[in-house]
Amino acid sequence: VVEIGRNCGSNRVDIFIKNKLTKMGQGLWRVVRNQQLQHRRYSEEGYYLGEHDRRLAAASRRHAQVGIDIYHVLRVGRSKEEHGFPDLELLPPELSLTILSYLNATDLCLASCVWQDLANDDVLWQGLCKSTWGHCSIYYRDHPSNFNYRKLYMQLDEGSLTFNANPHEGIGYVFRKGILDNVPKEIAKFIFYTRTLNWKKLRIYLDDRRDVLDELVTLHNFSNQFLPNALREFFRHIHAPEERGEYLETLITKFSQRFCACNPAVTRDLGLSPDAVYVLCYSLILLSIDLNSPHVKNKMSKREFIRNTRRAAHNISEDFVGHLYDNIYLVGHVAA
């Protein structure tokens, strides 16, 4: 890696980047050296093993041969420069990608003077974009000749940071850059497939944009899921408010409707309706608080939960309500 830096001009390489790359190379050298020592130990012990154990040792030696090959590459690199490390191109692709996986976008940009080819690899930046922001309208358009995913990554990163400070400004930023269409369904998909958005800011945004919330709920598929598990998945994407109010009631109402739409046969067999699921969801939230809160000394028993729930939802079987209690008791809170 230092060899690449020299080819690009050592006077222009930042000291911080040199130190970072040197530490990475030293760590890699230690890993390979340990593999070589392990290989030697296997060879010495193989003489004393029985026939069955010799076969196992042979398999271990074949596995360790990868380390010997890497060690050979590193040794060749050191023969050219006493304190240097080989070019990433000399290493196996899997090992090179493993090294690069420890760098974020900022480090990649700082190291672009050393890894010019890598920093300008549009395929790499395309993978980074789509793995972090799974859906953007711009992915499905015809791109101009000067389009590149490196610039798009920087814009998406800026949009996410802006969203986490002010959600409306963040969404407006990606609109202005042409990254996302100003359509509720497109906004919902962008939110659903992005994991870098602050959930508190997202809750504020969805409370203001109920049209986007409606589209976001329809992206969930609760088919063949047990009710508490489906509710947990729902609240992982759309976080519940900290206090009971109109927004929480809206979330549970939309979830109940979507759950019944995804499970028509189950809801019919169990006698569930959106109103009944709504009641059960509230019961599960209250039960979760009761069982998991350290401030509640006298925990609700299974018998009490069944009695209270069936008092509100008469058509629900006692066994089904009992299974709901067991799930909360064993798995935990539905809206943690």
Automatic annotation (TrEMBL):
Residues 85-128 form the F-box domain. Residues 145-331 form the SEC7 domain. SMART domains: Sec7. It comes from the Eukaryota. PANTHER family: F-BOX ONLY PROTEIN 8, GUANYL-NUCLEOTIDE EXCHANGE FACTOR. This is SEC7 domain-containing protein. One of its GO terms (molecular function) is guanyl-nucleotide exchange factor activity. It comes from Scyliorhinus torazame. Coiled coil: none annotated. One of its GO terms (biological process) is regulation of ARF protein signal transduction. Pfam families: F-box-like (PF12937), Sec7 (PF01369).
